[in-house]
Amino acid sequence: MASASEVPRFTQEQYLALERKANIKSEYYNGFIWAMADASREHNLIAGNLHGEIRSQLKGRPCEVYTSDMRLRVTPTGLYTYPDVMAVCGERKYLDDKTDTLLNPTMIADVLSRTTEAYDRGDKFAQFRRLASLRKYVLISQDKVRVERYTRQDDEWLLKEFCGLDESLRLDSIDCEVSLRDIYAKVEFPPVRPTRT
Questions:
Q1: β-strand partners of 88
Q2: Which CATH superfamily is domain 39-183 in?
Q3: Is 125 exposed, middle or buried (0-12, 13-18, 19+ CB in 10 A)?
Q4: What is the pTM of this model?
């Protein structure tokens, strides 16, 4: 087994050169590269539903919405990652003329999974908060109806939770509103396990 000192480290330039040729997506931070996990059917449906609803509302406006094929660079920390859905209104800033790495998202949404939930809520969100452009961060559960919206207000992030299919997720930073029924369209939830009393 290799020790931590034997794990190869890469520069950002090396990572980008490899990533732009790769068949799979990988994240990068602090010299390390790791492959992204495959997404479930539910994960793909939720991300696709949210992207589609936002895309239809942004038509004719100076905003764009991206799927997880658009890479994000968190410039203050050096993290490169692929959020499930990102939107930006106004001027778009990219790492270079390849326009495949966004620098200034207005809104980011991630669908939670068991393997990534702690990271999405913890270290990754801590890095996203360093993005001056970011106004909303949305976390969406895939095994139950629950959407968490974090909104930047000055130096604070305020949480609002949505748990009913008849509720709507308001994203005022990009002037969009999406019902949870549309976000969870065609998603099949696992059976609820009874609790012990």
A1: 64
A2: tt1808, chain A (3.90.1570.10)
A3: middle
A4: 0.92
Instruction: Show me where the domains of the chain are located.
Output: 39-183
The pLDDT tens digits for 75-115 are 999 999 999 999 999 999 999 999 999 999 999 999 999 88
Contact 187, 45 (CB under 8 A): yes
Bin 60: left if φ > 0, else alpha if -120 < ψ < 50, else beta: left
Residue at 156: amino acid letter: E
Q: Return d(Cα 81, Cα 101) in angstroms, integer.
A: 9
**In this structure, are residues 58 and 177 in contact, taking their beta carbons and an 8 Å threshold?**
no
Query: What is the amino acid identity at position 18?
Result: L
For 37-135, strand residue ranges (E) read: 63-66, 71-74, 79-81, 85-89, 101-102, 107-111
